[in-house]
Amino acid sequence: MSYKKADSKEAGQGLQPEQGSLQEQAARQLEKIGREILGICRDELYFSMRFMDVALSSFVYQMDARVSPFGTDGYTIYFHPQQLGGLYRENRILANRGYLHIVLHCVFRHMVKRGPDGRYWDLSCDIAAEHIIDGCDLRPVRFSRSLLRRETYRKLESSGHVLNAERVFRELTEWELTEKELSMLEEEFYVDDHRYWDDKDKKRPPDEQLEKKWKDIDEKMETDLETFSKEASEQSGDFLDELRVENRERHDYREFLRKFSVFREELKADEDTFDYGFYTYGLSLYGNMPLIEPQETREVRKIEEFAIVVDTSMSCSGELVRRFLEETYGVFSGNESFFRKVNIHIIQCDEKVHQDVKITSREDMESYMEHFRLYGEGGTDFRPAFEYVDSLIETGEYTNLKGLIYFTDGYGIYPNKMPSYKAAFVFLEENYRDVDVPPWAVRLVLGRDSLNESAKTGQFE
After folding, report:
1. At the topology level of CATH, where does 255-264+303-460 sit?
2. What is the DSSP string of 197-216?
3. How many Å is the Cα radius of gyration of the chain?
4. Which of 192-196, 230-234, 237-241, 251-255 has the largest mean confidence?
């Protein structure tokens, strides 16, 4: 399969403006034929992928002699009539795949993300889109794969992660490709022209509007695939998994920790309040001098008690655990999140509890991180940790436990019974797979990029 990328001069020679009405009529006829071809592609895809009805019909079609063979800015599909017609005559499945490829770019908002290396990012987006299409067991897009394509997928899939564009970009940049290897991959996966992604002339609406448009569409598709289109979900390969990753809600870590917080008075002047009695007394006594005295205590919502459990099974490496604890420590270091004295237990557990360290202050946390050591590396069973925390509550070690954070890869035995406190299972993005967390628990994914900026942003994904 090959979508030949034409030279810009060659692409422009197909439709040079000439004198006379015959040429104008020919141009209009070519544009009409091109729009009909795209309409046929849309309809063929719709009959096999009804859950994509809105996405497939979200474009207007416009002829553009510069494009090779087609491309989009998220609103319009631009096409070169001669190249599109040639592609359709060669094999209509190639035209169908190209249309779906363009739609997937929009569904995952590739044009508004734009990686730091434009060349690698463009290739990563193309590979991610083609990987989904090649994984679809559907007649309108079924096509044999080349050896290079199969080998590329094999290497990328060896990590076991969902191959969205960000993941593919990360993998490609680590392969240290030669110029020849990079060019071969670009030629193999080239389908559409990305020239409209930059929008240097600012002719289209703002990126925020484009992103909102397609986010609404892909959220609808995800819901449809999970409910009414089960059979289509099975035939669409990794499409649903990528939608879930794309639509994963982003959370602020400090806001998330507020779920475990309590109201309590803290000994600190509250400059936002003052006693009106002193205020009016000063006016009556001195005439024009109110007395303002802020309250000596204020009521605040902060973290007081919670538990951190780290999965020390063989599937969770010590480096991943350390990075998670460093992220948590970055939030812990902020005075605005915690009381000066806290009751936090850091528990290491695989199929049994190996260690419990009590943290009462920032100094304790610093000491723990300095002497951190991992215990365990057995199987994964979440029940012992919950049973242990329940025992701490029964013995009075916890008096007002608000929640438990469990860092894990997610593969283990979950408790059948909902605990009396909030529970969240936290996954690291690079080790994350979509697993069935119990309905009573919160599922959060800690982004890899956020780890590098944890002290600055504290962002959870």
Report:
1. Rossmann fold (3.40.50)
2. SS-TT--SPPHHHHHHHHHH
3. 29
4. 192-196
